[in-house]
Write a structure and sequence with these properties.
15% strand; single chain; alpha/beta; 9 strands; nine-stranded mixed sheet; globular
Length: 343
């Protein structure tokens, strides 16, 4: 771990006894080039602010740590010998952070000019708010889901069936991603994506940090849910704008092998789904599993007798999805345990 060194001219370095205005926390795993852009965007937007930057590297093999030490010596670098995942990686940094506020930023996310000072101002002006989110956009300026409602079996089914995408302006069908709402209007919300969040340290002291049971996916949902349960508001602020590559680079897989990297990521999501439902909905976890697998089985039946090669691929894809959910159930004992890290 390197110590905080003299900051670049465009930002102020807090003194040893001075709390920074904000601690910027970034967890990275093999994202060297976008991480470089991310860190530069932080420095470019931090003019006049006293900041500290903490990067937790999750055992990258692409030279990310060396790049940070060479090009961003003012950052505190924490090298983890293993991949801790998103939540626990952030927890490591949160225990080191000294700022008046903590900003969690994905390594593939970049500030639009003026967003960081606005985020701090919003928190200063709203002392009851524990966590705030931003308006996420792609490189082309397209909107990405930036504030959401909590998961429910019905809500997840609406998304999985495609009805949410088909009727985005409906308050019923579009409720999970709040696609019915004006993206330019601030609002209190259930939860915001973890690509960017600004946190009040006192709120974390009250509810705790990320639950390490979640390796990837659902960490921020669980955190926001615990905030809301404690009576701490979560807000969406659209004048904080962050470019997020992740939403652009995600793709629908037309083919899937059980042992493929794509299947591994889906398995992680399913494990986290089960852990979340068991934690917050108890026995409804069985309904969540059954309903998702039922949709996959319907798709298998619809395509089973077709001679169209694409439909047969679709059938096989969903057979694997059924197997993956069974595997996730076994791995987590029905959402009761989290497999050892790294998943």
């Amino acid at each position: 771990m390197s110590s905080m060194q003299a900051a670049m001219p465009q930002v102020e370095a807090p003194s040893a006894n001075q709390a920074p205005d904000v601690s910027i926390i970034i967890v990275s795993f093999n994202t060297r080039e976008v991480l470089r852009q991310c860190l530069q965007s932080v420095l470019d937007d931090a003019a006049g602010l006293a900041i500290e930057i903490i990067v937790v590297d999750n055992a990258s093999s692409d030279g990310s740590p060396e790049m940070i030490e060479r090009d961003f010596p003012q950052a505190v670098l924490v090298r983890s010998p293993v991949n801790l995942g998103f939540g626990e990686g952030n927890n490591v940094a949160l225990r080191l952070a000294r700022g008046r506020y903590f900003v969690l930023l994905n390594s593939d996310a970049f500030f639009v000019k003026g967003s960081l000072p606005r985020a701090i101002q919003h928190m200063d002006d709203s002392p009851s708010v524990g966590l705030g989110g931003c308006r996420l956009i792609g490189r082309d300026g397209s909107w990405q889901p930036s504030s959401r409602c909590f998961h429910s079996v019905l809500g997840d089914l609406i998304v999985l069936t495609g009805l949410a995408a088909r009727f985005p302006r409906s308050k019923f069908f579009g409720r999970f991603d709040r696609t019915w709402a004006d993206e330019h209007q601030p609002a209190p919300v259930d939860w915001v994506p973890g690509a960017f969040t600004i946190l009040r340290p006192s709120a974390l002291q009250q509810i705790g940090c990320f639950d390490p049971a979640f390796f990837l996916y659902y960490e921020e949902v669980d955190l926001c849910r615990r905030m809301k349960q404690a009576g701490i508001p979560v807000w969406y602020w659209p004048d904080i704008v962050v470019v997020h590559i992740g939403g652009e680079s995600s793709r629908q897989h037309t083919t899937l092998e059980f042992s493929s990297p794509a299947a591994q990521v889906i398995l992680w999501r399913m494990r986290s789904t089960l852990i979340y439902y068991r934690k917050h909905h108890g026995p409804h976890v069985r309904l969540a599993k059954w309903s998702e697998q039922t949709l996959y089985r319907i798709t298998v039946l619809r395509n089973h007798f077709s001679r169209d090669p694409q439909r047969r691929i679709r059938e096989q894809h969903h057979r694997i999805m059924i197997q993956l959910m069974d595997q996730a159930w076994k791995d987590t004992d029905g959402g009761r345990i989290s497999p050892p890290r790294p998943w």
